[in-house]
Structure formats: C-alpha cells, structure tokens
Design a protein that fits this description.
Layout (H helix, E strand, L loop, with lengths): L5 E2 L5 H6 L20 H7 L3 E11 L4 E9 L7 E6 L4 E4 L7 H6 L3 E6 L9 E10 L5 E11 L2 E8 L5 E16 L15 E11 L5 E10 L17 E11 L2 E8 L7 E5 L5 E4 L15 E6 L9 E10 L5 E8 L8 E6 L9 E4 L5 E3 L13 E6 L9 E12 L8
Parallel strand pairs: 1-11, 4-7, 5-7, 10-12, 15-18, 16-18, 21-24, 22-24
Antiparallel strand pairs: 2-3, 2-6, 3-4, 6-7, 8-9, 8-11, 9-10, 11-12, 13-14, 13-17, 14-15, 17-18, 19-20, 19-23, 20-21, 23-24
C-alpha cells in the first residue's frame, strides 16, 4: 500500500479500538467560548458542519470555493459540500488562532467546516463557509467493500478517500462506535455483512501489520449493497445523471465529464460498470462493455445516493452510447492578440507549429475541471486536454466551442498582476 502511517510500534490491536478516534471527538469553534451569554455554544451546535479534509479549491476570476469531504457532524449534515469563501469566513485552530487557508490545504489538515444552513439541493450541495476549525488530530477514511467480518472487526478493501490509493485495512470497532446505514439510521456491528459498501473513518494511529489495522468509531454502511455496485442497486430509481464524454476507463470504471441532468447529478463522476449496468445505443439496442471507450459521448444514469468524494463515485445503472463524434486536443494555453474575451488560444501539441492550433470559445456551457487547488481561469501556460464541437471555422487557427476542458497542469501558468 502506497501510504505513510503514524506507526504504533508496541500498541496491541485491542488498544486500537479503545483509543479515542479523531473522527468522533466533539469540539466547538473557539469563538463559541466567549464571555457573556452562555447560549453562544448552543447556537454553534445548531450550525451544520462537515468534518473532513479540503479535497478541492477553486479560485476563479472573482470567487473562491472549497470542497470539504468527510462526514456530516450531525446526521442531517453533508458528507461533502462545496463552500463559497467570503471575506467573513474564518480559518482558525482549536485555540482561535488564525490559520492560512493555503497551509490547511498543503498540510492536508482535518477541519470542521461550519456553514450557513441555506444550501442548495445539488450533489454535492453548495453553501457559504462561516468558520473552518483546524483539528489537532487527523484521521483517514476509506470507501470500499467489506470482504471479511469477525467479532468486533471488519476487513475493508477499497480506496482512500483523500489520496485515492488502493487500500485494505482491518478496522476494529470502538466500544461506542457510531454505525449508521445509508438512511442515517443507527445499526449494530452485527448487521454488517460481507459485500456491503462502507465509508469508514479511522486513525490517527495505525498498526503496520499486513493488512494494517486501526480503530474506528464512525462507519457509514450501505446495507442495500451486497453485490458489486459501490452504491445503490438495480431496484433503486435512477434519479441522477451526466450527459457528457467518457474521458477515462480503468478497472471496470469509466470517468464521465459533462453536464449534470436537471433532476440531479454531477458534472464529474466515476462510474462502476458491472453486469447490472444497462448499456444501450440511442435506439435502445443492447451493447456490451466494449462500447464504453474513452472519448465516447454518453448519457449516464445513476442513483442520487452516492459516496461523495471528489470526483463523485457511484454505480452506473444505465448508459446510453451516442453516435456523435468527439474531437479532442491536448496543448498549452498561449497568450494571443487573436482572442477576445471568453476565448483561449491553444497551442495544440505544445509545439512550434500554428497550423493545428485552435481558439476555443469558453461559455457557461463549458465544463472546466481544474487541478486540486487550481483555478478555472485558463491562463497562458496552462496545459489542458479539451473536447470541442466538431464544427469549426476554416480560419487559421480554427475557432470552435469548448465543451469540456481538463486542466492537467497549471504550474507554468502566468499569474495575474
């Protein structure tokens, strides 16, 4: 496993389960402890919050947004949420001392992100950040499947929520572990069966056995999933979807980027494909998994119940493969006096030739996927992969509409003055 742990050299496995686990400790923002009205604390407790790590940071022309991924502090709070950063947003440690946002991101710090109760119904939800409290202890989390069950313990194989590495770990339940199902109802450890999908929080201490072992006292279990889909099953209504392009295929999964359906969905999703996934063409004719190739246009349908990491991951219920072609380019954004507002000049191939260069029209219909912590602004020097309309002017360079732009590197991007 490609991951660094805080190692317990002498602690017993039983001690792991007895130790306090960071993912379940309770702590209020420092500003709640003030002189005067004791009701200040009660007010803070009623503020929704997500406990986890910042998994995405976007700084566009005028606004800043962060994505916090983890678990809701209360059962009704969000496991993942996109939060707008305003001049009033505070970033503090447990003692109330200001902490720079970039330090939180670079250090992969665990935070409690308190936000306004006024949030959208999108997936993930969007809101406004009030206060982020950096925690003294960190924790890890895994999205995966239970492959073995023992008395008081489960073996989980899956993916680290934060670094996306494959992982397998034994998790031992603490005495007062919180175990809830997909509907946020409390269940017993004995209700967990092999094949069920879980999101489990553990640490900070991990014993470096094979597989590693740790204590956990917060686990979310999808009791309806005992098969191969991460979330949901064939009986669930496919309420969400993405109309877009397959940008990657690997290990029985496809990545789709495009436009979320009006009734629900996300613009960036990784979908698991199995025998329960219905794959058809636009006429409804059944197709095989071989039809799901990179750079193919599709309309993907899935349940709105999903494990919200970034990008979102869930099981594909139905995929419609479209006939329309895709046109893909790779290159570097270049400064040019040939572009106007909402256009970018792309040096296709990042070479010295201009014959294959393209000017992309960027509109509200363009989906831009930035790097983690990056901006959606496409500045000169930014390396991108772009999918654009097959309709292009005959000028040199050609001008066309950008549909999806994926930023692969912004380290050489020109910074605004």
């Amino acid at each position: 496993m490609n991951k660094m742990y805080k190692v317990l050299a002498t602690a017993s496995i039983l001690a792991l389960a007895a130790m306090p686990v960071a993912a379940n400790a309770q702590q209020l923002p420092a500003q709640a402890v003030q002189k005067g009205n004791a009701n200040k604390q009660t007010d803070v407790k009623n503020v929704p919050a997500t406990w986890g790590q910042i998994t995405n940071f976007v700084h566009d022309k005028s606004d800043k947004f962060i994505t916090v991924t983890g678990r809701g502090l209360a059962p009704t709070d969000q496991d993942e949420i996109i939060l707008a950063i305003t001049p009033k947003t505070k970033f503090i440690d447990a003692k109330g001392k200001t902490v720079p946002l970039q330090k939180i991101i670079d250090g992969h710090k665990t935070v409690k992100a308190f936000y306004s109760p006024n949030i959208t119904k999108s997936i993930p939800a969007r809101g406004t950040a009030l206060t982020l409290v950096v925690q003294d202890q960190s924790f890890s989390a895994i999205d995966g499947k239970v492959t073995e069950v023992r008395d008081g313990s489960i073996l989980v194989k899956g993916t680290d929520v934060y670094n996306k590495h494959d992982e397998e770990i034994w998790l031992h339940f603490a005495d007062k572990a919180t175990i809830i199902d997909q509907n946020r109802k409390t269940i017993a450890a004995g209700d967990i069966k092999e094949g069920m999908s879980v999101r489990a929080f553990y640490g900070p201490a991990v014993a470096m056995s094979l597989p590693p072992q740790s204590g956990t006292n917060y686990v979310i279990v999808n009791t309806e999933d005992t098969g191969s889909g991460e979330t949901g099953n064939e009986d669930q209504e496919l309420k969400a979807g993405t109309d877009g392009i397959i940008t990657n295929t690997a290990d029985g999964k496809v990545t789709v980027i495009g436009k979320a359906h009006e009734k629900g969905g996300v613009n960036y999703v990784v979908l698991s494909i199995d025998d329960k996934t219905q794959i058809v063409d636009e006429d409804g004719k059944a197709l095989t998994k071989d039809a799901l190739k990179a750079d193919t246009r599709v309309d993907a349908y899935y349940s709105d119940i999903m494990l919200m990491i970034y990008p979102a991951q869930t099981h594909a219920g139905k995929i419609v493969v479209k006939k329309a072609e895709t046109v893909k380019i790779e290159g570097t954004v270049k400064a040019s006096d040939r572009t106007s507002a909402d256009q970018v000049y792309v040096n296709v191939g990042s070479d010295d030739s201009i014959d294959n260069d393209v000017i992309l029209n960027i509109s509200k219909d363009t989906t831009i996927i930035p790097t983690l912590g990056g901006e959606t602004a496409l500045r000169a020097g930014t390396k991108i992969i772009a999918y654009h309309s097959p309709i292009m002017t005959k000028s040199i360079p050609g001008i066309t509409n950008a549909e999806v732009v994926i930023v692969t590197s912004d380290k050489d991007a020109v910074q605004p003055k």
